[in-house]
Amino acid sequence: MSDWLVYGDTAPLPTEISTLLLGLLLAFLCGQIIAWVYMYTHTGLSYSRTYVSSLIVLPITVALVMLVLDNNLVTAFSLLAVFAVVRFRNILRDTLDTVFILAVIVVGMACGTQKFTTALVGTLISSLALIYIWFTNFGSRQRYDLILNLDWAQPLSKLDKVELFLERHAFRISLASQRSSEEENVAHLSYRLLLRDSNQVDKLLQEARDLNGVSNVSSLKAEDESEV
Questions:
Q1: Are 158 and 142 a contacting pair, CB within 8 Å?
Q2: Contact, 188 vs 178, CB < 8 A?
Q3: DSSP letter string over 164-177?
Q4: Per-residue model confidence as pLDDT tens for the chain (228 residues)
Q5: Closest Cα partner for 84 from 73, 76, 74, 96?
């Protein structure tokens, strides 16, 4: 009864059910690993649930394509003609999203060509590399973690009082912007700070508001202003 399933393919090289299942299931497993890495390390506003789902289904589809080709040039050209009819118009805004797509495609190709060890080791190494980049924030040139905006109503010669206060809360201080308003007789200042304790931002803001001559105190995370 099950002979039609085992011997149903009439290709020059018959399909082994165990190899077929192993290839597709391994493609599913590797896609799951890469998808979990993407979910865990993703930053930004462009998160999409359907994109994560595609990271799981795509390696299975590619593995199936490679199994169908089976080193047959005629089948390869036929399949190319079929895919030429399908047009993909989805634009990936993040370069790293494209890397994830390429990773699952290559893993799917490895599974489809029965290079199971290559698929598994490649998935693990790629996942470790992506986690390392996320964990270390590799490539970031961020030297400060907070931007403090305030208005100074006293002479600029007394500005050292503010800087002495900021030195108690920050390892590094940089005056990023200074604009004077003659009508209001105030100076609008922006400082970049590398905080000693990032959990003490509220305390920093409250103490800044209590300083004589300081008003309109606000803060912004440096990462929100510059790198995305």
A1: no
A2: yes
A3: HHHHTTEEEEEEEE
A4: 456 555 555 555 566 778 888 888 999 999 999 999 999 888 766 778 888 888 898 898 888 888 777 766 666 666 665 565 555 666 777 778 888 888 888 888 888 888 888 889 889 999 999 898 888 777 766 667 888 888 888 888 788 888 888 888 888 888 888 887 766 678 888 888 888 887 888 888 888 888 888 888 888 876 544 444
A5: 76
Q: Which fold has domain 146-225?
A: Alpha-Beta Plaits (3.30.70)
Domain ranges of the chain: 3-136, 146-225
* Integer Cα distance of 65 and 76 in angstroms: 9
DSSP state for residue 185 in the 8-state scheme: T
- How many Å separate Cα 62 from the centre of its chain? 23
Contacts of residue 139, Cβ cutoff 8 Å, sequence gap at least 6 = 133
Global confidence as pTM: 0.60
What does 199-224 look like in DSSP terms, one character per residue?
GGHHHHHHHHHHSTTEEEEEEEEHHH
How is residue 44 annotated by DSSP?
Answer: S
Q: What is the rounded CA–CA span in Å between residue 17 and residue 24?
A: 11
